[in-house]
Amino acid sequence: MPATRLVIILLTVSSSLAKSYNQPNISLCALWSSDATTLANENVVGLQPAGIYIDTENTIYVADRQNGRIMVWDKESSIPARNISDNFINPWSLFVTTDATIYVDNGDFNNRVDQWIFNASNSAPVMNVGGSCTGLFIDGINNTLYCSLASEHLIVKVELNSSTMAPIIAVGTGCPGSVSDMLDHPHGIFVDTNSYLYVADTDNNRIQRFAPGQLSGTTLAGFGATVYFILNRPTDVVLDADGYLFIVESHNHRIIRTVENGFKCVVGCFGGSGTTSSQLHNPQTMAFDSNGNIFVTDMSNHRVQKFTLVVNTCATTSTTVTTSTSTTTVTTTTTSTSTTTVATTTTSTSTSTSTSTTTVTTTIIPLRAPAIEIPPNAKWQQNGVTVAGGNGSGSGFKQLIQPLGLYVDDAQTVYVADRNNHRIVGWKWNATSGEVVAGGNGEGNGTHQLFNPFDVIVDKERDSFIICDWRNRRVVRWLRRNGIHGETTISNIDFFGLTMDDIGSVYVADMKKHEVRRFQRGDSQGTVVAGGNGDGNHDDQLSSPQYVFVDRDYSVYVSDFGNHRVMKWVEDAKEGVVVAGGQGQGNNFTQLSNPQGVVVDKMGTVYVADAENYRIMRWVKEATEGNVIVGGNGRAELLNELNYPFGLSFDLYGNLYVVEWGNNRVQKFNIEQTIK
User: Fold this and answer.
1) Model's pTM, two decimal places?
2) Residue 462: which domain range?
3) Of 288, 311, 334, which residue sits at a domain end?
C-alpha cells in the first residue's frame, strides 16, 4: 500500500456485539448539499452544544450543555421526542449502545461519566474522571469505555464488566506535548473494529492513531503526517465503512475527509465562519445517519445542522430487471467519467410472474464544471485566495512562469500547465508549494519532455493526464502515478485547449484550422464538430479558437478568440450560435475582448475568462448580456484583480479557479451562499 494512501483498511472481526453507530459506505466522489437544514436551534439545544450521537435506527441524541440534559429525536422527526436529565452539569459528549443505554459526560462538576439505562428513572455513575470528557466512545469488542480528558491531555478507559469505576490511562502522559506519546487538549475519539484508537489531538493540530496496547501514536493527518496538510484545531474524527477519515476542523469552520491521495473539503467549504446555511462557526462533533447524511453541532451558532448526501457514486448506473413466466432479462448500463459498457444476460424460469424495475441514476459532471446547481444570481467572494504560484516568475516549486490551462480534481488538487517551465505542476489542497507531475526536464520533444504546454486535464478511468504539448504539436498522455514519460496520442496539430467527454473522446481547439475536432479512442484523424469553414465570423466559422468545453449532451462550447465571442455547437450541427459576446471587441456587458477559458454549469450558464478586460463574465442561458462575477478592477496583483486570466475551472462545490498568465498564479474565488 503506498505511503500516501490515506485510508485505513478495517479487518472483519467476528463479534456478537453489533455497532450502535453508523458507518455508511461513502464514495470518493460523494457530495453533500452545500446548504444545511437546521435540526435544532438555541431554543432547543441551548448555548454551545457539543456532543451528538446517531444510532443505527437514526435516533438522534444531542447533549444540551446549558440546560444539563440530553435531547432525543426519533427517526425522521424534526421535533424532539423527549429529554433526559438527572443532575447532568454541562454535559459535553455522549455515547449510546445498541440497547439504548446512554453514557453521558458529567465530569465538569461531578467528576464522573453516568449511565442511563433505557426507561430507567435515574442514571448511575460508571467511571470516575478528573474533568469533562470531551469525547466518549465504547469499544464494543472489549466492552471498554474511553474518555477524552482535554484538560488533562489524556485518554482514559475503564472495562465496563469490571467492578471498579477508576479508569486507567489509555494514551497520553498528563502533560501537553507533541511527541508521539503525548497529547494536547484532545477532543473527539473513535475506536475501530480492530480496537485501534483515533484521537482528534486538538491543540497539536493533528489526528493520531494508537494500536491496541501502544502508548505511541501514528500521525494520520495534520502536523507530522506523511502527507503534508495543515489542520486548524480538529475536534472530532469519524471513520466511514472503508476507513476514510472525516475530520471536524473547528477553527477552519468545516468538515474535511481523506481521499486516496490527500484531503477534500466536505461541508463548510465556502469561506470562513458565518451564520448562513452553508457556513459553520466552530463546529465540534459530527455523526452520520444510516443514509450518509452528516449532522454537526455548530457550537458558536448554537445549533445542529444537517447536510444531506446528494451524490454517492463516481458513475452513472441504470439497472432494469424484468421477470415473466418464461424469461428473465437483466440489462445494466454503467457510465463512468470516460467509458460506457452494456451487458445483457438471458436465462429461463418457469414460475415467476411479477415485474419490477429499479433505476439508480446520477448525473455525469463534465470536466471543469461544478457538481452543484448554481443559481443565476450566485455570488463569489471578490478577494481571491492564491492556491498555486504567486511568488513571482520563476522555476522553483512555489513559482510559475506564464501559466495557462488548469484542471481541479475531486480532491481539489490544482494541476497547472506551467508553460515556460515546460511542465505540469500539481498543488494539493492547502499546500504551499507544488510538485512536478509531468515534464520538468527542460524544453524538448523527448518522451520525458514537454515544450510550452498550454492545457491539461485528467482522465480518471486511465488515471492519466492528457496534455496539450503546444510547441511539439502533439497531445500527450502521461500516467499520474510515477509517470516518467508520456505517450503521444495525437500528432501534427496546432491547438490551444482541450477537454474530454464522458465516453473518453478528446476535443481539441485547432487555432490554425479554425475548428474544433473530436478524437475518439484510437482515432488519429478526428472529426470536425465546430468550425472547419475557414477563418471568419459567420455562424459556421471560428477565428483562432482557444478553449473548449463539452456538456452532458455533447454540445461544444468554444471561446472564439478572434471574434470575441463564445459559440455553442450542438451535436452534429452545421453551424453554431453565439452564447456570449459577439458584439465586437469591447468592455461593456454585451462584449468580450479576446476570450479564453470557458465553462458551462448545469443550468446552461456560461462562464468565460474575458482576458483583456481582466475579468470573469457570466452569461445566463439565452441572456443578451453578461455580468462580472470576479475581477474587472484592473490588472495589478491585488487579490480582487486579474492580470490576463486564461484557464478557468470550478471544483465540485462551485468554487471558481482562475489562472492568471500575467501574475503567474492561480486564484481561487470561494462561492458565497447561493441565493435561490
Assistant:
1) 0.66
2) 379-672
3) 311
